[in-house]
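Page 42, continued from yesterday. The earlier attempt failed because a stray header line got pasted into the input along with the sequence. Redoing it now with the clean sequence only.
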Amino acid sequence: MNAVIYFSCSGQSKAVAEDLAKRLGYDLYETGNAEGMIFESVAIVFPIHCQSYPTPMKSFFKALNAKHVTLIATYGREHCGNALYEAAKLIKGDVIAGAYLPAKHTYCETGDTVFVPEEIICKMLAPTPIKIPKLKKTPFAGLLPSARSRMIISIKKTENCVSCGICGGLCPTGAIENGKISTKCIRCLKCVSNCPQKALAVKKSRILRQYLRKPRFEKTIIYK
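This time it went through. Structure tokens are written below.
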């Protein structure tokens, strides 16, 4: 079986995965729906979190059963980090291609959807193993990322909450129940993006607002 699998919080990586699956004619799955499946060729699309892969994806990468794997990471600001190299170390199958794609930051309200370059699709159709190189990360990228996220952005339940439980069902870390957030929250904003009542209010710190005003790093990096 061939598939495109995505982990997406604000919808950006999902849009990239949907377009890629359509162009390849592959099945499309969210990470939670692909567990236990066996794949011939699979592309995995996910966002960069603190210059690495999102924390909930670690167990997914370790359990993935696929012969050929393509890794595609979307990133939204200054640094793509080292996510592809770190993910590749966890995967048992052959990594055949990879890409860092500049995209809309989760904490920005607007931005253009990006698309996977044609070179990646060509490589997926003629797979040969590659090695993803190790890139440098900023010194504090891996220092308590969840705690740092909680310091720079807050999420509060408002009076619009009707206790529908949708946020809890979608949360990748099980950090929210009926709008009440625990310390397991990684501030991915999946709950905010998917709340039908718009009952979760987000407040950005001054440090975060200044960071988001900086020029974007717009470089696409391809490994094939």
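Notes: The helical segments are 12-24, 57-63, 83-88, 118-125, 145-152, 166-170, 190-194, 206-212.
Reminder to self: strip header lines before submitting.
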